[in-house]
Amino acid sequence: MRLFFSFAHKGALWSLMFWCVIALLPAAGVLAQPYPDHPITVIIGNAAGNASDILARTVSEEVKNTLKQNFVAINRPGANGAIAVESFRRAKPDGYTLLFASMTMAVVNPHVQADARYNSADDFEPIARFVQQPLIWAVGKGAPWRSLREVVEHARKNPDQLRVARLGYGGSTHLVSTALMAKQNVRLSIIGFNSSSDVFSALRRGDVEVWVDLPQPLLPRIRSGDLMPLAVTSPTRLKMLPEVPTWTEAGLMDTPLTAWYVIMAPKGTPKEIVDQLNTEFNRAVNSPRLRQQFEEVGGIVQTISPDELRRFMREEHTRWGQIVKSANLKPE
Length: 332
What we know:
The protein is α/β, with parallel strands linked by helices. The chain folds into two domains: 40-132 and 259-326, Bordetella uptake gene, domain 1 (D-Maltodextrin-Binding Protein, domain 2, 3-Layer(aba) Sandwich), CATH 3.40.190; 136-232, 3-Layer(aba) Sandwich (D-Maltodextrin-Binding Protein, domain 2). It has helices spanning 2-31, 51-67, 82-89, 103-112, 120-123, 148-157, 172-184, 196-205, 215-224, 271-285, 288-296, 306-326; strands at 40-44, 71-75, 97-102, 124-133, 136-140, 163-167, 189-193, 210-213, 227-232, 259-266. Helix 7 links the parallel strand 6 and strand 7. It is globular, with a radius of gyration of 26 Å.
């Protein structure tokens, strides 16, 4: 009789365990839902409608079509992107919050902002590089110079007299000018402005003589004849400005300098998610439609893996840090 009750007790126990496991299976299935199973937030460090904002939204829209999931853009402008980075650093590493970052946000801010204590390559998870963009050196149509070398020689004979416009402290337009000064041992007077339209107005008034900027604001004015391009900072000449030499061709700089844009995830985001997003974003920027759009504004598309991107960002962190140091820019 005892043996019978023992078997009966064990049978009831095994039955109870079986049904408990069955009851848990739906919950386990929920946890194993494939990524992504709800919208992904992309934090952007620029105001809506800015060229960087448009780039982030354009590529995200392309990826949405393949991932079958929406991307929600959140603009956090201000402090040269520092506000966006701080918001991003508090996000969970689950692949549902990403940061679209310019070169300035990713690797320059830690050298020029006192409270930007991060190294993007090591403190975040680099996913994909969207595009690289050169900068164009230009002057007004009535300027006496016909090459960037002539500008440099004028600055050499007239220290601090030649005024060059920049946008933002420590941004690409600022640091490209300081890099040229350091390499050529000349002194330019670099004047800060809030927008490209302000720069153009100042150039027409004669308040500045030289404008260095990304292609988007310059190309329409170059085509209209209001500006004359002198040099580009890219590795090769631009398709839309084939007659304009690179500053390396002009013998003024040893290496090209470009602005670039990346998307990153919080530190600790699973590798399989990072790799999946890398594949999708690389596919998007390599699509014929987007590649043509980028090349029309001087963009260079060279897609790379997350590990290659991390190495690239480490190198850029060091390189731009050296440029900041050579320019004696102090953290603000």
